[in-house]
Amino acid sequence: MTNPASTSPKALGHIRVLDLSRVLAGPWCSQNLADLGADVIKIERPGSGDDTRAWGPPYARDAEGRDTSEAAYYLSANRGKRSVTVDIASAEGQALVRELARHCDVVLENFKVGHLKRYGLDYASLKAIKPDLVYCSITGFGQDGPYAHRAGYDFLIQGMGGLMSVTGERDDLPGGGPQKVGVALTDLMTGMYATIAVLAALTHRDRSGEGQHIDMALLDTQVAMLANVGSNYLNSGKPPKRWGNAHPNIVPYQTFACADGHIIVATGNDGQYQKFVEAGGRPELARDPRFATNPLRVQNRDELVPMLAEMVRSRRRDEWIEMLEAVGVPCGPINDVGEVFANPQVQARGVAIELPHPAAGKVKLVRSPMKMSATPATSDKAPPMLGQHTDEVLREVLGKDAAQIDALRAKGVV
């Protein structure tokens, strides 16, 4: 694991972001911007900071193997930023944030609708002092509509937005029923869409001098992410159902249990199916008139799949992969996360990195997947300690001297 070189030009090296967000969707967006070179100033509550700092164990460990205060969850979404502690509930803290906003290109926030207006930190208030500001709000349900004032969480939105209706085992099979995705996919995709929107708004600003307000909602994102599933419903009027690890239109195209693990088999045509059952020593399943073509296999899946499952269970996972790859049948393992990071392709791509850290000595992270030849994503600064850069930012960006910073600290503003 290596620290990517940071000597190349940075695509967003001219951009400064004031990040008032916390937890995941907003920080995921600002981490993307930081990876691309933006100066991201993360505003946190004095004493506690981003909620995810306490979302452990696990925590990063120091050289002696002892837990630090840095939760692994927090580390996953905050590299490349500078942490500044400000009490935005105080009048002086609000004034400080407004002063910082004047020196920033982007403000990112995920407070409840109307919350920041009370502090004079909403879009209209900040636009008045910086007309070309790009201001991105991330909420559960958006800035308008009957649900606008509700709190929105990833799990809740996965359910409300239809994802859980198509995720999980078939209702008529053991273990059937809705399942959430194992990572906070709606939060992450909202952060990704927010990143795209911010970059588009900056491009518009650079051409026209006009800033704008971006209204991102987790529910909007989740519905958009239904993709072909949503389109299928809109054009047929029939809600789709759960298929677990199977495919509604292709058989076999699913997971199977091997003698020592699981494997994915994805036969996209009749020839691949024939090679699959021949490799497994069951060529008669290709000649059986019930299973000769894919439409017939789909029609008779309940008879075929148990026989295939019995066939696959007789051999070990790696043996199946070797046999099927040799005859051109698409297949692959279902890796646990340890196996993912041990995978030679993952290692060759340099996905895991180590960065120096003031408390842990070094922390292990996943680098940005954005590989760019001229302006590569750098991922060269570890997630900051709480308030690590307060003095630095107030001095460099706002020109405050030590006495002024000490006075703010004495009052509990920073």
From TrEMBL:
<protein>
    <submittedName>
        <fullName>CoA transferase</fullName>
    </submittedName>
</protein>
<keyword id="KW-0808">Transferase</keyword>
<dbReference type="GO" id="GO:0016740">
    <property type="term" value="F:transferase activity"/>
</dbReference>
<dbReference type="Pfam" id="PF02515">
    <property type="entry name" value="CoA_transf_3"/>
</dbReference>
<dbReference type="InterPro" id="IPR050483">
    <property type="entry name" value="CoA-transferase_III_domain"/>
</dbReference>
<dbReference type="InterPro" id="IPR044855">
    <property type="entry name" value="CoA-Trfase_III_dom3_sf"/>
</dbReference>
<dbReference type="InterPro" id="IPR003673">
    <property type="entry name" value="CoA-Trfase_fam_III"/>
</dbReference>
<dbReference type="InterPro" id="IPR023606">
    <property type="entry name" value="CoA-Trfase_III_dom_1_sf"/>
</dbReference>
